[in-house]
Design goal:
The chain is an alpha+beta fold. It contains 19 helices and 21 strands. It has an eight-stranded antiparallel beta sheet with strand order 11-12-13-14-21-18-17-16, with no helix packed on it. Helix 2 (31-42) crosses helix 4, helix 6 runs parallel beside helix 9 and helix 12 (257-270) crosses helix 15 (316-325). The longest helix has 24 residues, at 67-90. The chain is elongated. The two termini are 49 Å apart. The mean pLDDT is 97.
Length: 617
């Protein structure tokens, strides 16, 4: 294991908290931002910061429902952020009483962790109620700590003019709930030896540093905090390949890769430049650029694992990360996406974001980013890429984007999707990855793969002899070959299926312009069963958003037709019959992406046929 960040400690000559983190922010706020943020803050005047009753906390353990608690919990934090931003813009003290109410309401909560995270060991059952003598530090306890530290830091003079007890209360709660347990406990996300990490590691570490950097350094042991934080960053990085692919998918880049930016920047600022070399590390740069490589068009992204295909616009963090690692491609993508989002001010100014620092960075750097977009109006196009570490293949031609997932079924936030395909035509989703429904207790339990969106049968994959894929690292692709020009991928997905399938091989070939087939877009499968296989039935599943139409030729040796809305048409070979299943989208999370029914097309392979092909018309 490489200790890139830990080894940098030897270069530190000075260490301090930050006295000028948000210096000059009011001079950079645009008139549009100020008007919008004051109007938003006005909506929360006299806001009722609800207490959280024990029964609401217990509901998750009793029913598995996360939403009821989280609506109240996050609602309070969003309201507080809106009031703080309004006060920064208006500077009249009109929002202060409501801000103080929000601060005290959050300080008086029994716990800052979510009920879904209320356990001390990884992947163990949650406790029904929190232990107030032993705070748990998890994602949103850390977010809350960073939020309160930022408020105390940026509004300290105003709050002290009311009473110095306000910032004293914040400081007291931060030491009790964040700093003391951080230094005295080991939570799984901190990392240890070869234990696998995920976005939690860098996300929590970022917010620990945001908290510590904005507290009075005399009150906390900064050396010990920096020492532990750098160790966690290295544990996070060890699970990334040199190519920087986020195996949790594009959505989690915002909680993983982008947290690398703030973490590294804070470490560098707190040590007067000791972490400069980390900023120029090749793996860190590749982590930064991942998001622009999986961007399709507009709000659409290639989504694997628990990710949605539609994400919020890029903004200040992506731009500043690109600036930090000297990536003009990332800066171009971020600046233009940010500029294009101005027509949707809620998204542009991160209305729903609970991390106050992200919102502050947005208004602090808005002028700079918009100016960059105006000077560089043509986006640097993303190229073809193969992320070997996670098996993610992406190839493009005009407004067509084809992606194939090799790898295995052991990703963080895993779906059983080895070999699955995502296709965009006309920059619109043709063959889709559905994503994930709203999280419940079941989502992160041993019953995860009972959920339909996790199953290979609801991805663009075959069902073989009645079997779908299974989860785990042993269920993987093999013999992966990618063409030098990154237009074609071949792989064998036999090992992603249980041994009961009696498969000798199952090879998938995908090309955006295959020289073997008149430079057409091709998806071709061929397979061979063991001699003792009894059930050799193959069903090819394809998921679409636009309504599909199929015309079957009675002679299975001749082409049938498969049309996906007005996006694309394929010639179809090897099929004897089909079914189209209309799937209503009833889940609130899925409805944010899919505004009408989605479809599963099931192609039944003719007897004695060992090959299937889609060829674009």
């Amino acid at each position: 294991m490489e200790y890139l960040y830990k080894n940098t400690l030897s270069k530190i000559n000075t260490l301090h908290n930050l006295s000028d983190l948000w210096e000059g922010i009011t001079n950079n706020i645009t008139d549009d931002a100020s008007k919008y943020l004051i109007e938003e803050a006005n909506k929360y005047l006299n806001f009722s910061f609800e207490p959280i009753p024990a029964t609401l906390f217990m509901e998750f353990k009793r029913t598995g429902n996360r939403v009821h608690f989280e609506d109240v919990y996050f609602g309070k934090r969003r309201a507080l952020n809106a009031l703080v931003l309004g006060e920064i813009c208006e500077d009249k003290g009109r929002f202060l009483d409501d801000i103080i109410n929000g601060i005290y309401s959050i300080c008086e909560e029994s716990a800052w962790q979510l009920p879904a995270h209320n356990s001390y060991k990884r992947d163990t059952p949650q406790n029904i109620l929190p232990d107030t003598d032993r705070p748990i530090i998890e994602l949103f306890a850390c977010e809350t700590g960073a939020q309160l530290a930022t408020i105390s830091y940026i509004l300290k003079d105003k709050l002290d003019n009311v009473s110095d007890e306000i910032c004293h209360r914040i400081n007291s709660e931060l030491k009790k709930r964040i700093i003391k347990p951080y230094l005295n406990e080991h939570f799984w996300w901190m990392g240890r030896e070869d234990e696998p990490m995920c976005n939690w590691t860098i996300w929590c570490t970022q917010n620990i540093l945001l908290t510590a950097a904005q507290m009075n350094e005399k009150d906390i042991p900064l050396n010990a905090i920096i020492d532990k934080a750098t160790e966690s960053v290295d544990y996070f990085l060890k699970d990334y390949g040199i190519d920087g692919c986020c195996d949790e998918g594009a959505m989690y880049y915002h909680h993983a890769g982008l947290c690398m930016y703030i973490t590294t920047k804070l470490l560098d600022l707190m040590t007067d430049g000791a972490f400069k070399d980390c900023m120029y590390d090749n793996k860190v740069k590749n982590i930064a650029e991942y998001i622009s490589n999986v961007h399709v068009h507009g709000r659409y992204y290639l989504n694997y694992a628990d990710c949605a295909p539609i994400l919020e616009p890029a903004g200040a963090r992506e731009y500043l990360f690109g600036q930090m690692v000297d990536s003009s491609a990332l800066m171009s993508y971020a600046a233009l996406d940010f500029a294009n989002s101005m027509k949707d001010q809620d998204a542009h100014y991160l209305k729903d974001e609970i991390n106050l620092s992200y919102r502050l960075l947005t208004i602090m750097h808005e002028k700079e980013i918009i100016d960059y977009a105006q000077k560089h109006p043509k986006q640097i196009p993303a190229g073809n890429v193969y992320y070997e570490s996670a098996g993610v293949f992406v190839t493009r031609k005009g407004d067509i984007t084809l992606s194939v997932k090799a790898g295995d079924n052991d990703d963080s936030h895993n779906h059983n999707d080895t070999g699955s395909i995502i296709l965009y035509a006309g920059n619109r989703p043709a063959l889709i990855d559905v994503g994930v429904e709203s999280y419940t207790a079941k989502t992160f339990s041993d019953r995860r793969y009972e959920i339909w969106t996790m199953q290979s049968g609801y991805h663009n994959l075959p069902t073989i002899g009645g079997y779908d894929q299974l989860p785990g690292a042993s269920y993987h692709a093999s013999n992966v070959k990618v063409s030098d020009d990154l237009t074609t991928i071949e792989l064998d997905i036999k090992n992603a299926y249980p041994s009961e399938c009696k498969l000798h091989s199952y090879k998938r070939y995908a090309s955006i312009e295959s020289p073997k087939y008149d430079n057409a877009l091709i998806i071709k499968d061929n397979w061979e069963f063991d001699k003792d296989a009894e059930n050799t039935n193959i069903i090819l599943n394809f998921m679409t958003y636009e309504k599909p139409e199929v015309t079957i030729n009675d002679d299975s040796s001749k082409a049938s037709l498969f049309k996906i809305g007005d996006l694309c048409t394929f010639k179809l070979y090897g099929v004897c019959k089909y079914e189209i299943e209309s799937i209503p989208v009833t889940d609130e999370r899925l409805q944010k992406t899919w505004k009408h029914d989605i479809y599963r097309v099931r192609f039944y392979i003719a007897p004695d046929v060992s090959e299937f092909m889609l060829k674009s018309v």
